[in-house]
Amino acid sequence: MQFSIPPSVLALCVALRERGYQAVFVGGCVRDALIARPVRDWDIATSAPVADVLACFKRAVAMGASARHGTALVPTAAGPVDVTTFRGPDLASDLARRDFTVNAMAYDADIAQLTDPHGGQRDLAERRLRAVGRAADRFAEDPLRALRAGRLLAELGLTPDAEIEAAMRASAPALAGLAPERVRAEFARALLGEH
Questions:
Q1: Half-sphere CA count of 152, side-chain side, radius 13 A
Q2: Residue 136's Cα: distance from chain center in Å?
């Protein structure tokens, strides 16, 4: 796996580790590195509470509604980085709450270790889109995931499993309640997708 991390982004993980926290790259940046696709967005998951992330990086801005499991947007020379507190007590529970297996992987740059408990790497190799757990449960948590599934199909040329297809259809009525800017962002990226 070719994982070329900009120094200013890597420095965020180093700073958090120096304060005794776990900090790993997660989601789309890991997926894209595995398929040698340019990384568009950098995301870090950490054991640090969001208040400590904000204290560590003076230019960071809180993005999440929850003080316990929120996100801080940290500006870097390579662009903004989302630094999010683990959703649950540890990395394993955080990855178990992610949307798709191809996004439920983590990379620890300190020891060059990939964590892939849900078979995301295999799904990428087989060009398949599967949910982490039951697709209906994941989409009920956030209906935008139905649009995100469509975007991933358009961008990466993956094939959805039957459970994803059914959950996408069932989620359609809930899409009306989403913020228009969230919908627009997913549609715009899907329309620009190769597939």
A1: 29
A2: 19
Q: Is the pLDDT score of 64 beyond 90?
A: no
Cα–Cα distance, 100 to 129 (Å, whole number): 7
**H-type alpha helices, the chain:** 7-18, 28-34, 50-56, 91-96, 120-125, 135-141, 144-156, 162-171, 180-191
Threshold 0.70, pTM exceeds: yes
What is the DSSP code string of 55-99? HHSTT-EE--S-SSS-EEEE--TT--EEEEE-SSSSHHHHHHTSS
Quick one: DSSP state of residue 126?
T
| Nearest-angstrom CA–CA distance, 53 and 92 | 20
Q: 174 — alpha (psi -120 to 50), left (phi > 0) or beta?
A: alpha
pLDDT in tens, 13-34: 999 999 999 999 999 999 999 9
- Residues 6+ away with beta carbon under 8 Å from 121: 34, 105, 114
- For residue 39, give the nearest of 70, 82, 91 by alpha carbon: 82
Instruction: Tell me whether strands 128-129 and 113-115 are parallel, antiparallel or unpaired.
Output: unpaired
Task: Please tell me the distance from the alpha carbon of residue 132 to that of residue 16, in angstroms, as a whole number.
Answer: 27
